[in-house]
């Protein structure tokens, strides 16, 4: 049985006498060398995520994000003023909605295809009831196509990928001939 002498910091018994203080330092050093690279990795990853939509992802936004990235209807309620730098698409959805679940992978794929050209957002109408009420959303999924200049257009219900691409190319990017592959 090991006995600890707290005054001297020595553990007596077992194979040899050893200092528990040095054991603690050994564990501390191990944690330091193990956790330090992990912390740098975590910081790097969080900076990459906060860089916006540079990676071509569909970003879940809330009311505060909507007010700063899309349209601040509290500050400017009488005229639509888009807050973004690139056109965007907003998918108003709910987790329980079957058509919403079917359109989600399409949006993710298109966010990758149009990365750097269009921002893709999604808003959970169950969590953001005020936004859903403010915009009169009664049917989901509702896809809002928001150009940099001009008023947005909405499409309710499930849309095939080709229809979304056509709307992106003609309405948001101003192309005359819509490419079904999104290029």
TL;DR?
The protein is of the alpha/beta class. The chain is 39% helix and 17% strand.
Low-confidence stretches: 35-53
**Coarse morphology:** globular
Q: What class do helices, strands and sheet pairing give?
A: alpha/beta
Reading side by side through the largest sheet, how are the strands ordered? 4-6-5-7-8
Q: Helicity, in percent?
A: 25-40%
* DSSP strand count: 8
Q: Please state the CA-atom Rg, rounded to the nearest Å.
A: 27 Å
Distance, first to last CA: 74 Å
The proportion of residues in beta strands is 15-25%
Name the helix and strand elements from N-terminus to C-terminus, one letter apiece.
EEEHEHEHEHEEH
Structure description:
This protein has about 180 residues and is of the alpha/beta class. About 40% of the residues lie in helices and about 15% in strands. It has five helices and eight strands. It has helices spanning about 20-50, 65-70, 100-115, 130-135, 160-170, and strands at about 5, 10, 20, 60, 90-95, 120-125, 140-145, 155. It has a five-stranded mixed β-sheet, covered by helices on one side. Strand 1 (about 5) and strand 2 (about 10) form a beta hairpin. The protein is globular, with a radius of gyration of 27 Å. The N and C termini lie far apart (about 75 Å). The model is unreliable at about 35-55 (pLDDT under 50).
């Amino acid at each position: 049985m090991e006995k600890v002498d707290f005054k001297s910091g020595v553990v007596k018994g077992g194979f040899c006498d050893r200092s528990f203080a040095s054991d603690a330092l050994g564990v501390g050093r191990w944690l330091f060398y193990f956790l330090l690279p992990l912390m740098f990795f975590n910081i790097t990853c969080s900076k990459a995520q906060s860089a916006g939509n540079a990676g071509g992802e569909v970003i879940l936004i809330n009311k505060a994000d909507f007010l700063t990235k899309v349209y601040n209807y509290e500050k400017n309620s009488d005229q639509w003023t888009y807050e973004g730098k690139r056109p965007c698409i907003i998918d108003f959805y709910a987790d329980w909605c079957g058509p919403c679940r079917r359109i989600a992978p399409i949006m993710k794929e298109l966010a990758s295809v149009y990365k750097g050209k269009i921002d893709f957002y999604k808003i959970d109408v169950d969590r953001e009831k005020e936004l859903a009420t403010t915009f009169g959303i009664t049917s989901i999924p509702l896809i809002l196509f928001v150009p940099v200049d001009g008023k947005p257009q909405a499409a309710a219900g499930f849309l095939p990928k080709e229809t979304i691409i056509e709307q992106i190319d003609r309405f948001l990017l101003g192309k005359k001939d819509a490419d079904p592959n999104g290029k």
